Amino acid sequence: MGMSLSRLTEKTNIWPWLLLAPLGIYMLIFFVVPLADVAIMSFTEPRVSLANYERVLTGALYQRVFVNTFLTAAFVTLCCLAVGYPLAYLMAHSKPRTAMLILLLVTMSFWTSFLVRTYSWMVLLGNNGPLIAFLQMIGIDQPPQLLFTRFSSTLAMVHILAPYMIMNVYSVMKKIDPVLIRSAESLGARGWSLFRHVYLPLTAPGIANGSVLVFVICLGFYVTPVLLGSPREQMIAGLIGHQIDEFLAFGMGSAMAMVLLVVTLIILTIYHRRFGLDKLWG
Amino acid sequence: MNLFMRWTGILVVIFIAAPLVIVVPMSFSSANSLQFPPPGYWLGYYRAYFTNPDWLIPTWNSILIATATTILTMILVVPATFALVRHKFRGKSFADLMMLMPLAVPHIVMAVGYYSYLGDLGLVHSHLGVILAHTCLSVPIAFLVLSANLKGFDRNLERAAQSLGASPTKTFMHITLPILRPGLIISALFAFVQSFDETVVAIFISGRDAATLPRKMFDSIRQEADPVIAVISTLLFFLVLIGIAAPYFVSALRSRAPKPSRPAGAH
């Protein structure tokens, strides 16, 4: 009998390292080093000191931006849940054909460049757009400014990130055994109590997955808040970009980037300990 | 509860769908501002897109960069995925985790790093610089797709080939590769889309010469909201529609049902 491929490779333990080496070296040079560069610059630009962190962590402007970013991310996550949960429910409890059409729509949204979706919201919320026209039609003579406000950027982010929530919740709902629901009903659970004590706990893993993803992506969101948000209420990524673009303040930009990175990694590490990171994107 | 969820669900469908389809009528609008509904219709902005080098060059840059990124990503990821899925070795779980790291780091953080690092290497504002950066960001996505495929691979097929006398190389070429082909194609497609759509890093490092389409769109939306953006959005919309509908059609023809999904990337 010929030696099998698997046995050959299991015996000589150098194989996996040879296969991994090109990627490992590449990622070291073009991922780890640039990232380390950010960490180094945060301490050395313009001179070696902790001054950047001192300013970032104690300056009133920066603190306000951090708090604003955190609250926005939390709010967007909640909205995504409020929007995504009913839709996932609708998908999980309608005919296969309807479910597939909705899934198609959500997948479409998911794959559509978020620049395109950001642009669409500019059209929808613009001063010559349909929403303002509608408000005027129902008798509001001086409709409020919708575009370039916290409202417009939040709404667009919810729209852009909702598919992450929907897909995660839906994939859990789909797997719920209907027998569980029926037996809960036979034991007297109805309406709200059935939902609260049976359905909600069963879908919790999907909610956790979706929420972590949406929250983490939203924390570092650059494009949509910059294009649609109010210039006076920036989020952290926008402020980092501003420091680099306008002031070439690499030290300050890097220090803020490091804070953003550390917060993101803490959240993902907690998640990883409990569930495993590979499940988040799988 | 039930009825409430249903109606909310229907409203959400409208909320998701409206921004996706609104770009189509906008692209035929004759207005030069963001007016909706459009005052009139014409094809002028399509002509503007297909004749204006300011738009065509970034489009070409994006195609070029995404293609090169895909090739480089696959060359690096395919052997690594085999190593990680088929071998047990010390440090494997660490390596697994490292493969996902680029997904965990916000793109704005990488943008700061690349701006400075590629600047030092003299690669900022060059195609090569963007390709090198995009490859790092595409690696985890290509890996996730490919490793899921490789895990589902029935190795008895390889054993059968070898017991019939095929050499390891022959087994790989005639059994492993053909069976894995759909997974490889999807993995490469995801790498391509990741690069083609990537905006934040491209904004900071692609400069004028290597400006990608997303960078050009970002600048244009920020400055003047050129109506050509609606044209590009519509073209991208239909590309995505075709890309998603095609597997459904093929599967309807073969009466099987694979589901297109996409692992999430950090925006």
Written description of the protein model:
The complex is a heterodimer of chains A (282) and B (267). By secondary structure, chain A is an all-alpha fold. Helix content of chain A is 79%, strand content 0%. The longest helix of chain A is centred in the N-terminal third of the chain and has 33 residues, at 60-92. Chain B is built from twelve helices and no strands. Chain B is globular. Chain B starts with a helix and ends in a 13-residue tail after the last helix. The interface between A and B is large, with 105 and 110 residues.
Helix count of chain B equals 12
How far is it from the N-terminal to the C-terminal residue of chain A, by CA? 38 Å
H/I helix tally of chain A? 14
The third-level CATH topology of the domain at 56-227 in chain B is: MetI-like fold
**What is the total tally of β strands of chain B?**
0
Per CATH, the superfamily of the largest domain in chain A is MetI-like
Largest interface, and how many residues on either side?
A-B, 105 and 110 residues
Helix content of chain A: over 70%
Oligomer: heterodimer
Task: Indicate the CATH class of the largest domain in chain A.
Answer: Mainly Alpha
Radius of gyration of chain B using CA atoms only: 22 Å
From the helix content, strand content and strand pairing of chain B, which structural class follows? mainly alpha
Shape of chain B: globular
Strand content of chain A: under 5%
Return the average pLDDT of chain A rounded to an integer.
Answer: 90
CATH superfamily of the domain at 56-227 in chain B: MetI-like
- Largest sheet descriptor of chain B: none
How is the biggest beta sheet of chain A arranged? none
Radius of gyration of chain A: 24 Å
Number of strands of chain A: 0
Assign an overall shape of chain A: globular
